[in-house]
Predict the structure.
Amino acid sequence: MSLKSSLKAVVTLGQGVAVGIPPAAESEDPIELFGTWFQAAQDAGILLPEAVTLATASPDGFPSARMVLLKHADAKGFVFFTNYGSQKARELEANPRAALCFHWAILQRQVRVSGSVERVDRDESSAYFATRGRGSQVGAWASKQSQDLPARAELEERVRETEAEFAGREVSLPPFWGGYRLAPTRIEFWQGRADRLHDRLVFTRVGGGWTVKRLYP
């Protein structure tokens, strides 16, 4: 984070304590409202505002959570990418429901999203993979994500082998790597307020539209 961004972040500390979620927000499209909040997080100079907790669960109900990076959000859903052999992917394939939680502490804001999950198409995964740095592309091929690694040297050797394999040419998209899209059925916006009397605004998908209500903090 640059000095300018850091100073901007300090200035925004406490934003929303006095000013909460206005009644007008209740008539907004929640995806558009998320876009407005996400832009505010970027403008505040927050490091990696796209970092989000992804919660999944096994078919028998054991939950797990980890941080991922949001790569795209629109009316169709929230997109992130991973190795399809990872724990998160295995759980999503067996139980295609998940939740996301964004937390932007400086703005005292949180957004919770839950819904069903499906893989994005291969073309979309390829388009994103092409934007990654070559090192990250090589790493995607070299890593057997979430599997046991006897020694770091083994991973480093797999990286060297992959670099040699793709020497002088573009690194292609691995067949075991790609994206997921979470199609939201519920989105909650949380704004910190004084005395812990926070604002909570919940949008729930009904047919092709949304219902909205406020919750007690």
About this structure: The domain at 3-128+176-214 is CATH 2.30.110.10 (Pnp Oxidase; Chain A). The longest strand covers residues 177-191. The chain has a mean pLDDT of 93. Helices lie at 3-12, 30-43, 87-94, 122-129, 134-142, 152-165.
